[in-house]
Amino acid sequence: MKLKVISIPVYILLGMCTFSCNKNVIINNQRLRITINDQMQTKIENTSKDSKPLMPGFVPSEYLVTKDFTAQDFKLIDMKKESLSNHAGTGTQWILTGEYESYPLKKIVYISIYKDFPNAAYFQVKYVNEGKKNLHVLKWVNNRYHIIPSSKDTTKFWSFQGSSHADRRDWIQKVNPGTNHQNFMGMNASDYGGGVPIVDLWRRDAGIAIGQTDSVFRLISIPVKYDREDTIASIYIEHEFDNAYLLKPEDTLSTFETFVSVHQGDCFTPLRNYALYMKTKGIKPAEPEPGAFEPVWCAWGYGRNFTVKEILNTLPKVKALGIKWVGIDDGYQQAIGDWHTNKARFPYGDAEMKSLVDSIHAMGLKAAIWWNPMAISPKSRFLKDNPNILLIKKDGSPENVSWWDSFYPSPTDSTILASAKNTVHLFIKDWGFDGLKLDGQNMNLCSPDYGINHDISHPDQAFQNLPDLFKTILTTSRDIDKNAVVEFCPCGDVMNFYIMPYTNQFVASDPTSAWQVRSKGLVYHALMPHTAYFGDHVELISDDFASQIGIGGVPGTKFVWPEAGSGSEKEILLTPQKDSLFKKWIGLYNEMMLSKGKYLGNLYDIGYDYPEAHCIEKDGIMYYAFYNPDFNGKIKLKGLNPSKDYSVADYFHNKSYGSIKGNKPFLQVQFKGFLMLAVNPKNSSQDISLNN
Question: What is the distance between the alpha carbons of residues 613 and 601, in angstroms, rounded to a whole number?
Fold first, then answer.
């Protein structure tokens, strides 16, 4: 009896020390600090000395919404800390268990940090129904945080928001009062969906990123809400069930794996770290292809009604400008889905296409062909011969591709996969093309597929396995031609991160501004830095080659040549003035090949630094690109060695700025539009020519 009396107080005392004496659980990973209170509410901090508080206090960050109640606060009843070793390396995992007061619902939160992934933590949450009722779950929420805006800047936050929309909005954008973006990662329009499942919100002093880290694409939303009346912005990850999820007694519901990270500067660092983490899950970039870094001319300037003569007559000018690639665009095919040549463009059939490719090769140029493998015309012979290949919506109807008046095929159907292989053989082996231009916003994602005999066991596997279609295309292309270039143009979408490994050339994808070319370039450089980034047709951004080349992009054009044929758009005519400008820019590009350098995305903040600045290091030389409509002031050349002296040259305007010291990297400049500087260590063997 005496022993029993003694043992009870000791047990109680231990419990008090765990949850009373030390009622907050604190998790640190370098500059990230997560504090969890006894209600399992969370506060995120960036412990850098220059960082002000990110959050005003604790908030319920992981919770469940059911038909009958919202379970937000859970009393913390247990905490375990374990060593961890898995795909991401070694680390530590915290397992926190809590109970919901109003119903016997248990919450278990797994928080993992890794030695190789500083400033980040990875979450998975499980809910166990320990009651006797069925719970109808409407949605779950992870990583919900209230973020304090900047008190000094007119732009309260800058952000990366990774969802795709028909308005083709900026990937990197300002967040001010009145912002309310749902950022649903699924289909937001018939042709638009997918992206990078991350939201990053940053101020001048600190930022916070959240996102999803499962090995397959998931239908989540990552809302950014900052109402005009609010003093804080809210970000969170949610998964809403189409039909209420039935959580039966003794059953467990698991969320997807999510993460939070903190940083300073813009979104480059969290995006880079995200990609490195996802690489441990098998999502790795394709091997870089040297040919993907060569300048491109696309015949799209002549439209769908191009003639072979127009293309042939333009080839000498293409070659004279220093361009290496010729793209044959939409309009050659019999129908979307029937990829042999039509008689209007190619009266002599497929043999005439092969002859065109031979002529391109005879000029010392390479040839690429346009293709949209995720669209099938209702008028196509292929669909008539294979009526069961279409992706089917829940209501039994096919999913429309509005831009091409077509339908989505099922990307998992064996007939579609076999057809993709056959089409690649037609293009590369039979016709002799050196590369493919995969083009269309509808390629980026698809809806769940409720069709039968499509080799899936769940409708969601249609969009989850969609990357396998593009893996098939890339693998088949490279099997036929080991140097094949496969461009993926999602036409304004934020490219689906899970498809990125299956292309060796990204593209600015129909930019609506030069800002989009530059900001998309930053994102691609962060996520998969060794893959070529094609700046798309420079005519889309008023011939702003500086925005393509200065950020490490591959230049491209769709000019039409007055001597070659009829171009309907005067803006894309290659006038004598443009001829000189194009030749100069493309010559500079071919000489310096900045696209093969190292993009130093952590030097400047693309949002808050003024003027906007980018930097590439190549062969020991620092290449800076500054952008502003009209700037007169002092710039800072970040990233220089403080113990060295440097010579500074404007390599576009052939102007020397003399010398600067690495420990005093400031320069007084005046420019309109852009300033391109090459900063070379003195006594270096490298030389920057000023006589282009």
Answer: 10
Name the domain count of the chain: 3
In our burial notation (b when 16+ CB lie closer than 10 A, e otherwise), range 470-493 reads bebbbebbbeebeebbbbbbbbbb
Instruction: Give this prediction's pTM.
Output: 0.95
Answer yes or no: do 236 and 320 share one domain.
no
Residues 261 and 360 in one domain: no
660 and 562 belong to one structural domain: no
**Do 380 and 509 sit in the same domain of this protein?**
yes
Rounded to an integer, the average pLDDT of 54-58 is 98
Q: Given a cut of 70, is residue 140 above it in pLDDT? A: yes
**Per-residue confidence (pLDDT) for residue 684, from 0 to 100:** 66
Closest CA to 386 of 353, 417, 430, 351: 417
Q: If you average pLDDT over residues 115-136, what whole number do you get?
A: 98
Q: Which domain holds residue 663?
A: 619-681
Are 634 and 579 members of one domain? no
What pLDDT does residue 571 have?
85
In a domain, 230, yes or no: yes
d(CA 514, CA 491): 15
| 553, 616 contact by CB (below 8 A) | no
Beta strands in 272-337, from DSSP E residues, in sequence order: 296-298, 325-328, 333-335
Confidence of residue 22 (pLDDT cuts 50, 70, 90): low
610 in any annotated domain: no
DSSP bridge partners of 350? none
φ and ψ at residue 560, rounded to 5 degrees? -115, 145
Tell me, yes or no, whether 484 and 440 share the same domain.
yes
Q: Residue 14: what pLDDT?
A: 32
Q: What is the pLDDT of residues 624-644, one digit of tens each?
A: 999 999 999 999 999 999 999
Residue 632, in any domain of the structure:
yes
